[in-house]
Each structure stands twice: as C-alpha cells, then as structure tokens.
Amino acid sequence: RHLAIWITSIIFSAIHMQFFGFVPRLLLGAYFGYLLWWSRSLWLPVIIHAFNNSIVVYSTWKSGEISEGGGDSSIDQWGLDSPMLILASAILTVFIIFRLHREQKSAVIQRVK
User: Fold this and answer.
1) What is the torsional sign of CA 83, 84, 86, 87?
2) What is the pTM of this model?
C-alpha cells in the first residue's frame, strides 16, 4: 500500500507538469493517498483536494495576482503568502490525521471484541 501511494503521488505530481511544484505536489498526493487508505473513502481526499484548490484560487484572486479579466501573472501556486492560511492549513491537517487515526484504532478494537 505504501508503494502504491507513493507511485500514485509521483504520477499525481508529474501530471501537473510544473518542475518547481513537483515536491510539494508529491507530498500533497501522498497525503491524499493516505487519507484514502485511512478513511476507506474516496470522498475525503476528493473534498480536501477541492478545498485546497479553492483556497489557492481565492487567495491568489484576493492578492490581486489574477485580474478580473481572467489572466494571471506569476501566480503563487500554493497561495502561501498568508501566515494565517498556513496555520489554518496545518491545524486542519493535524486534526484530520488525528481523527482518522483515532477512528481506525477504535475500528481495530471493535474487530478484536
């Protein structure tokens, strides 16, 4: 399962075809893969992926890097220009991982009983 997640993450990152964003997208792809594995549901990584993309688009638009006409100029691909956004993302990530780990642990205990 780990090999499958990391191979899929490499493909996920390569499909975006952006050299400087390869490693962050590789890690994001691995995160999505482990979310799928831990939650046993495709919906959680899909929702988190959509949420991530929405935050990037919104923060890029709000910072003025995307004009009203739709053109872009050197967009910060990750929207990491806001320390509050970084903090919110980190807190949400830790919360989701903690909850999934706790639910997986309780499911194992219930199977043993």
Assistant:
1) positive
2) 0.55
